[in-house]
Amino acid sequence: MPRFFATTANIAAASIIVGAVVLALKFVAWWLTGSIALWSDALESLVNVATAVAAFAAIRYGALPADANHPYGHAKAEYFAVVLVGVLIVIAAISILTAAWQGFLDPQPFARAPEGLAVNAAASMLNGIWCYVLIREGRRRRSPALIADGVHLATDVATSVGVLVGLVLAVVTRLPILDSVLAALVALNILWAGWRLIRFSIGGLMDEAVDPETLDKIKKVISDNADGAIEAHDLRTRNAGRLTFIEFHLVVAGAMPVSQSHDICDRLEKALRAEVHDSLITIHVEPEDKAKHTGVVVV
């Protein structure tokens, strides 16, 4: 990646620029043709720009270090941005459905269709490339805001392709009413994307546990690196933006010196951070009479 993309915030800033370019191209396509479907596609790109702005603001705020008022950091700010994006998507979908209904009642012929479709196709290609970058970097950097932005762009690309194919058919068959049908389908697809984003953000705000695969990795790391301890129980995990919180109780022999149990905890924390990046770990050490004989058995 170029040096400009060294930080997550820079990628989010670039997303605003790309979104603005795509928005301009799609509005040109709509202006050339007068197509309701292309207007709906352009309106979705307007939401894309708002999404990018919200993601940029949330990433900048979420990267702030912990302070007295936010001892666990600010990473959850990204989830609020995702909720905002979901709401904007729903509003855009309602506007598109309204325009589609009006077009269904009074269908209009297209103007300069080839030029407009070509401009829209160029915008969709740019969107597709940037969508790939956002999702790849969002997963690599564990950024919900970047992933949400990329997922929404993927939906935009899919709907744009569908609109282009449908409008070519409308021009060939000389059935302008297909324009309104396509716009309505775009709106329904946008609504589905909005629901998925809202559901994703709610999971983060409600402190959902890590996925089963990551949880299994955490258990294995504890089992393999807690030599000298007896067991680990009451393991709890949660995600907050790019951060993963890991908490558990570690049972050791009652006569074990504090310094020795501390060394075990240091070893566990180092191994867990190597396996789960950006993890914050809390270990509560207990004497052996507190053992529950459940959870993670130390090998």
Chain-averaged pLDDT: 80
Termini separation: 42 Å
**Roughly what fraction of the amino acids lie in strands?**
5-15%
CATH class of the largest domain: Mainly Alpha
The tally of strands reads 4
Number of domains: 2
The assigned CATH architecture of the largest domain is: Up-down Bundle
- Main beta-sheet strand count, sense and barrel state: 4 strands, mixed
SS field, number of helical segments: 8
Structural class based on helices, strands and sheet pairing: alpha+beta
> What form results from the Cα inertia axes?
elongated
Q: Specify the helix fraction band.
A: 55-70%
- Which topology of the largest domain does CATH recognise? Alpha-lytic protease prodomain-like
CATH superfamily of the largest domain: Cation efflux protein transmembrane domain
- Our Rg estimate from Cα atoms comes to 25 Å
Spatial strand order of the main sheet: 3-2-1-4
Low-confidence stretches: none
H and E order: HHHHHHHEEHEE
